[in-house]
Write a structure and sequence with these properties.
The protein is of the alpha+beta class. Helix content is 56%, strand content 16%.
Length: 820
């Protein structure tokens, strides 16, 4: 056994001198590196974002209501060993002797918040303000001209400002969360007289505990959720972080999958080449006394040796790379970033090991049938059975990898079907194109006859080389174009004039002056009327009688929504069904909401808007961009339906560097306005998109490296065969220059045909990728139709120039004698 192990080690080390072994080793490193990097990063990001979400929420789970919550809610939590606290939040006027300011007031109970920390200046160990004291954000001090120790009036009571509120979790939801914030003790709220019948306040219960207990409590609450209540969980908040992040995550998974796919193809072809070239060595080992089992053990140990070294190198590279990537994203993630679970470090090596063993066993089984007499044959005569098994294993690997990375069996099957059918079609079409171009060039070039003869002889190689390289170029093009289209979409979502301020709580008597102030600053904007209402009926029947249980639990039905009316559909909305007719009663509904609730054009909707019942038919469905930093609405009514009801107004606009002067002008003239500055959020988002682009580019470079390795592997194998043919041509009188020209002409023609076919495959494959994975509108790419064929031609010719070695006449004789 020791002797076999020593033999396997010697063969492993000697194998690094062979091109096919080096290609196999590098492909294994890339596959293990990519899998390990994505697994470790994904796990750490998931834990980090979950922690970040809990810290932003102030809890693991929040139950929110517009009415005081029943004590039974906390009793259910206590039975599960879950900690709880509570807070009441409302928008109210804070005043001094001369000024007023609309603020968001939180009255917090003991233990608040349950996750995260409240940061104060000066720092304090107190969890809550002392009785009669208040913590306020610096915006309140600046706008009211106050300092620490001054008095601030809330309703009927004066409070002493003891600390400046730097940051805190659980700012609330909705526009009330954007007002300058203040915190008092819950015990002090009643003395202010702010909570009266009809007061608009949010009542929240916060819960924190073990994930299993939180999940149980969340399900209990869902089963008994009242119409005024709403559950807020970490995962739901994550879903609202923006489509840019979700599309970026989908793209990163796509690049990782395609890089792994390219590496898998390289491993497959390198293993195939490796086993086919081991016929003589296997026969020699059989001659020296090894039986079939021992021979299989030696070669399996050799391959496992390559895997072991590649696993160490790939895993270490992944560890260093993920540390660098987390440094890149440090500003966006809570520190310290949680460590990953040890199991995730083993996913890459385990995948590489299974791939090597699964793909090599069928070929090794055939190699072990080698007889000593095969020492006099150049290559192992292959049979179809092991090859078919290898193809089946490779197909299963592609399918499982696609499902793991893309999280969609349909998309995985679709991509695999496109690749398989494309390979078969390209194999036939590529060989026919080569014959066609050979006929066209036969009488037009000096070497045309030799080129046509070689094309006729190499049909089998074209049926392998053209599909492999074509699919390779297609995968790289899909990666690149998906990234390009994604970046163009991100830039379109955040143009230079993206609104960076929201203005809300504009009263009807203030609209003219507000518009005048903005127009004097050359700011054009539209004021949107806001009405608070709730959908209560469908086709003159209660929702409980027309919707199923899942639809009735929809978030839009469990709270009041912002409604509006307009003369025309907003520019950032697009009609998909129906017609907008402003002179007739009707309402336009957001398309996704309509689909989830089963609404369609012509349905009659009933709304409760401030106690007024409004019935209106759906006249159209539309899509909108929630991340456009523009006011967006689920329902937009025609003017005649709502313009007689009382409303406040909202708008958004871009101020840029002029924000300070215009903000002061607006608030001095209208102190009750709420001005929301989102410049910091925009800057963070733009920074994050830039970092995601850098991460995407890194993975794209990995895919390109894997692709070049695959091209080198396949072309190098064929150029070895070309050397034998050129040696024969040299003995028949051809010069070395003519042989070189013939090789380069054939490679250029092969590269051009491959590029043309790759363009068609790329455009076909991008269609489902854009629609199902990246959620983008499919588009054609005209530049691709000339750039990819030209690039493919240059790639083939360059590889030929690098690998081509001209042989002298005497060297050609020696090479031919070796084949006899």
């Amino acid at each position: 056994m020791r002797a076999l192990g020593a033999l396997a080690i010697r063969q492993t080390l000697a194998g690094f001198t062979l091109p096919e072994c080096r290609a196999l080793f590098l492909a294994l490193i890339l596959a293990i590196f990519t899998t390990s990097l994505m697994a470790v990063m994904g796990d750490r990001l998931d834990h980090s974002l979950s922690r970040k979400g809990a810290e932003l929420l102030g809890a693991d789970l929040i139950l929110q209501s517009t009415r005081p919550l029943h004590p039974q809610r906390t009793e259910a939590a206590e039975k599960l060993g879950i900690r709880h606290s509570g807070v009441t939040q409302l928008a109210t006027m804070a005043s001094t002797e001369q000024q007023f300011l609309l603020i968001s007031l939180r009255a917090a109970q003991s233990g608040y918040p349950l996750r995260g920390e409240i940061h104060l200046q000066p720092s304090s160990t107190s969890a809550l303000p002392a009785t009669g004291h208040i913590w306020v954000e610096s915006a309140i001090l600046e706008r009211l001209g106050l300092a620490l120790g001054d008095s601030l009036t809330l309703g009927e009571r004066d409070f002493i400002i003891s600390h400046t509120l730097i940051s805190s979790p659980d700012r609330g939801r909705g526009f009330v969360s954007f007002n300058p914030q203040a915190i008092i003790r819950a015990d002090d709220l009643a003395s202010t007289g702010l909570l009266l019948p009809g007061s608009r306040a949010q009542y929240r219960l916060l819960f924190a505990g073990e994930p299993e207990a939180i999940s149980t409590l969340q399900q209990q609450f869902k089963d008994g959720l009242e119409t005024s209540e709403r559950l807020i969980a970490i995962d739901e908040e994550e879903d609202r972080r923006g489509s840019a992040l979700s599309r970026a995550s989908a793209f990163l998974k796509l690049v990782a999958f395609l890089t792994l796919l390219i590496s898998g193809l390289t491993i497959f072809l390198s293993l195939r080449r490796f086993t086919r070239l081991q016929n003589r060595r296997a026969a020699l080992l059989r001659t020296l006394g090894l039986n079939r089992a021992q021979l299989a053990g030696v070669y399996l140990l050799q391959l496992l040796g390559y895997w072991f070294i590649a696993a160490l190198v790939g895993t270490l590279l992944a560890l260093f790379a993920q540390q660098g990537l987390f440094l890149l994203l440090a500003d966006m993630l809570p520190q310290p970033i949680p460590p990953t679970r040890p199991l995730f470090y083993l996913l890459g090596p385990a995948m590489g090991g299974m791939l090597v063993v699964a793909l090599s066993l069928p070929a090794l089984k055939q190699l072990c049938r080698t007889a000593p007499a095969d020492l006099f044959h150049e290559q192992l005569q292959s049979s179809g059975y092991p090859v078919r098994i290898s193809y089946l294993v490779l197909g299963l690997f592609i399918l499982l990898s696609g499902f793991f990375y893309l999280n969609s069996l349909v998309l995985s099957l679709l991509l695999m079907g496109i690749l398989l059918l494309s390979a078969l079609l390209i194999a036939w079409l590529g060989a026919r194109l080569m014959v066609l171009f050979g006929h066209l060039l036969q009488n037009r070039l000096h070497l045309g006859s030799l080129l046509q003869s070689r094309i006729q002889q190499q049909q089998r190689w074209y049926r392998l080389q053209i599909p492999v390289t074509c699919l390779l170029l297609s995968l790289l093009s899909i990666n690149y174009l998906a990234l390009t289209d994604l970046m163009q979409r991100w830039r379109a979502e955040l143009p230079a004039n993206t609104p960076d301020h929201f203005l809300i709580n504009v009263q009807p008597w203030e609209t003219d002056d507000v518009i005048n102030i903005l127009q004097q600053a050359d700011i054009g904007t539209q004021l949107w009327p806001i009405y608070r209402g709730r959908l209560t009926a469908l086709n003159q029947a209660p929702l409980a009688d027309t919707l199923n249980a899942e639809q009735l639990s929809h978030g839009s039905l469990n709270r009041e929504l912002n409604l509006t009316w307009a003369d025309s559909i907003p520019a950032h909305n697009s009609l998909t069904q129906g017609n907008w007719q402003p002179d007739q009663p009707g309402v336009s509904v957001e398309e996704k909401l309509a689909d989830e609730l089963g609404l369609k054009v012509g349905d009659l909707l009933g709304f409760d808007i401030g106690g007024t019942r409004v019935e209106v038919p759906i006249n159209s469905l539309r899509t909108l961009r929630w991340d456009s930093f523009q006011p967006n609405f689920f329902y937009i009514f025609t003017p005649a339906q709502l313009n007689e009801l009382p409303a406040s107004f909202i708008t958004s606009f871009h101020l840029g560097d002029r924000a300070g002067e215009i903000n002061r002008n607006l608030l001095q003239n209208h102190p009750t306005l709420t001005l929301i500055d989102v410049r910091q959020l925009l800057n963070q988002l733009q920074t994050l998109l830039g970092q995601l682009a850098q991460l995407s580019t890194l993975l794209l470079l990995l895919a390109a490296l894997a692709a070049l390795l695959l091209v080198y592997t396949t072309l190098h194998q064929e150029l070895e065969q070309r050397q034998k043919e050129n040696a024969l041509l040299r003995t028949l009188g051809a010069s070395g220059t003519r042989c070189r020209q013939l090789d380069l002409l054939e490679l250029a023609l092969t590269g051009g045909c491959t590029g043309l076919l790759a363009v068609a495959i790329t455009e076909l494959s991008l269609w489902p990728v854009h629609q199902r994975l990246l959620q983008l509108e499919p588009v054609l790419h005209p530049t691709l139709w000339w750039a990819l064929p030209l690039g493919s031609l240059v790639l083939f010719v360059t590889m030929g120039l690098i690998s081509h070695r001209s042989k002298s006449l005497s060297a050609s004789y020696r090479l031919l004698r070796q084949q006899l």
